[in-house]
Write a structure and sequence with these properties.
three-stranded antiparallel β-sheet, two-stranded antiparallel ribbon, 30% strand, Immunoglobulin-like, 143 residues, Transthyretin-like family protein, 2 helices
Length: 143
């Protein structure tokens, strides 16, 4: 009799955990520009930063190793695409998590690469580039 009670308790716990793992998602649409020129074929990725990686991003200023603080739940890449010839992109993705997701968007571009000067002989940049502007995308035809 004790065995059946234990099995029922574990069964209800498993059902509770599965129910708590709700589906969550994020979508981003926009136009990536380098000044007034569209940044075509740039890579755009959205990632759900999980707890272990969040610690890594905080500690990144002090450590240069990517092996530190990887955590039990690695980051989830939700979507990755390239912008079209006019700089437009649309990325979206979902994941199952118990806690709210922490989405982050990464952009790889070659904007102003020929104009950027930097000092690579030490730990200090002589000239650091700006982070650019992130604005609302223009309305698309059906919105």
């Amino acid at each position: 009799m004790r065995l059946w009670q234990t099995i029922l308790v574990y069964l209800f716990l498993c059902i509770g955990v599965c129910w708590a793992m709700r589906k969550q998602g994020v979508a981003v649409r926009g136009v990536l520009k380098c000044g007034a020129v569209p940044s075509n074929y740039s890579k755009v990725r959205i990632v759900d930063i999980d707890y272990g990686r969040l610690l890594f991003h905080i500690a990144r200023l002090e450590m240069c190793s990517r092996t530190a603080l990887s955590g039990p739940d690695p980051d989830d890449t939700l979507d990755e695409k390239r912008t079209d010839e006019r700089g437009r992109f649309e990325v979206s993705g979902t994941t199952h998590e118990m806690t709210p997701i922490d989405p982050v968007m990464y952009i790889w571009h070659e904007c102003r690469d020929e104009q950027t000067n930097f000092y690579s002989g030490g730990h200090r940049n002589d000239q650091s580039g700006g982070g650019g502007k992130v604005g609302s995308p223009p309305r698309w035809g059906h919105e």
